[in-house]
Write a structure and sequence with these properties.
Distance between the termini: 66 Å
Number of strands: 5
Radius of gyration: 25 Å
Number of helices: 20
CATH topology of the largest domain: Rossmann fold
Number of domains: 3
CATH class of the largest domain: Alpha Beta
Length: 446
């Protein structure tokens, strides 16, 4: 049978990345992979693991920051348990009983890492059809505990995985990034167990290939080609070339009445101006993007509201750089109101959060707290599993600090009620730091 090559440039690159991945998957000895790539290609590697997580219970992307070995190990265990618990009801409705319980930890004789491995092994034995193995994608947003502590934790994890009482071939780990791996010591300590690879997938050239293969003709093809060139121009440092391409693309989109596409062009131009520290030009381009978004919205384009929000947020970002915090707060507020009208919880929370932060920088603390309460109210539109991530969790912790002090008891009480409504009775464990939880316990609240 003749081999076929996927016609889609993205699919071709995904296949190359998958082929690299299989080098690790088929290496029976390796337990840890560090996958290095460049900035242009990192999104492709991330997409590969996102797809695996969506289609397999075995793949778990760990998003917690690494602050200490104990904290990070516990965060992984908690994520696995919560993942399982969240699916109990759905499976029960189709006749599948998921009644697994986490094994207890023998604290005197069992390290946290050993208990984590025992937990995963227990799940694999109890539900082999759902958990034939585990792949933990170790992606700490920040290694706050220091590189030495991180390397020490990896070494302990591999030692326990390969030689401990819960050793198994079914548990593997991967970390990816753009920086070279600092695994020399780890490779010496765990020979054959650590694999590194560098992948280059040329994602930066994919848009040109897509345009070249497109069957579109006329203004649509012309605009798409100009948009690709415009995006590429940002990496060349040539503002004059960017402006020529912007004007050419706007000429097509304006003539055809493509208001949404005009907004996209202005957003790209705004990013370019901001990169080159031309703040006045950037603010103007973002404002024109918001206006084009309004025209798109009026014409019935469903993307209009998001384009308006992005334009206003871009203007606000420019004013943050200028330290014009009150103006930034006003623009964030306008963006939040657009998101609230659309009941877009994610964007509404983020815009209100940034409004509150900007007001705090401007010294308007009462108004900042008011914006924070708006953000928490907008959080009710989010699905429960999304409330413990991203902007809502950030604004929850920020509001806790904003309502600390004499004269703020009424606001603190209102905040506690709001947090309980968003996160349930165990909201302190989901929102507050350890010290803050201890303070609540001293008051008899948690």
């Amino acid at each position: 049978m003749r081999k076929t090559t996927p016609p889609n440039p993205i699919e071709r690159r995904m296949m190359r990345a998958h082929k690299d991945w299989m080098k690790f998957a088929e290496n029976s000895q390796a337990r840890l992979l560090y996958w290095q790539t460049n900035e242009a290609d990192i999104s492709l590697v991330k997409a590969l693991f996102d797809m695996q997580q969506q289609t397999s219970s075995c793949v778990q992307i760990v998003n917690a920051n690494f602050e200490s070995p104990e904290q990070y190990t516990q965060a992984i265990a908690t994520q696995l348990i919560e993942y399982y618990d969240a699916r109990r009801e759905n499976t029960r409705s189709v006749g599948i009983v998921m009644d697994w319980q986490p094994p207890p930890r023998e604290e005197k004789n069992e390290t946290l890492i050993a208990w984590l491995l025992k937990l995963m092994q227990s799940l694999m034995e109890y539900h082999p059809w759902a958990f034939p193995g585990f792949l933990l994608v170790l992606g700490p947003a920040q290694i706050k505990g220091g590189e030495e502590a991180w390397q020490g934790w990896l070494a302990a994890l591999l030692e326990e995985t390969c030689n401990g009482p819960w050793k198994t071939d079914g548990i593997r780990y991967v970390q990816y990034g753009t920086e070279p791996p600092q695994y020399d010591t780890l490779i010496e300590q765990c020979p054959g167990r650590v694999m590194t690879l560098f992948g280059s997938y040329h994602m930066s050239t994919a848009p040109r290939e897509i345009v070249a293969q497109s069957s579109e003709r006329g203004p649509s093809r012309q605009f798409r080609r100009l948009l690709v060139q415009l995006s590429e121009s940002l990496s060349h440092g040539d503002a004059a070339r960017m402006e020529r391409l912007r004007d050419a693309a706007l000429m097509v989109s304006t003539k055809e009445g493509w208001h949404g596409q005009s907004a996209v062009v202005q957003l790209i131009a705004g990013a370019g101006y901001l990169k080159w520290k031309k703040e006045d030009a950037a603010h103007d381009a973002y404002g024109r993007a918001a206006q084009a978004g309004r025209q798109a919205q009026q014409a019935g384009d469903n993307t209009g509201s998001k384009l308006i929000i992005n334009g206003l947020a871009g203007q606000a970002g420019v004013n943050v750089l200028r330290r014009k915090y009150r103006q930034a707060a006003g623009e964030y507020e306008k963006a939040a109101k657009v998101a609230e009208h659309e009941q877009d919880g994610l964007m509404a929370v983020e815009m209100r959060r940034m409004q509150g932060w900007s007001l705090e920088q401007a010294g308007r603390r009462e108004s900042a707290r008011r914006a924070g309460f708006y953000a928490l109210a907008d959080g009710e539109w989010l699905e429960p599993e999304l409330r413990e991530e991203g902007s809502l969790k950030l604004v929850s912790g920020w509001m806790w600090k904003q309502t600390t002090g004499l004269g703020l008891e009424k606001e603190r009480k209102a905040l506690e009620e709001r947090l309980a409504g968003l996160y349930g009775r165990e909201w302190p464990q989901k929102v507050l730091s350890g010290a803050e939880q201890q303070g609540l316990k001293a008051r008899g609240v948690a």
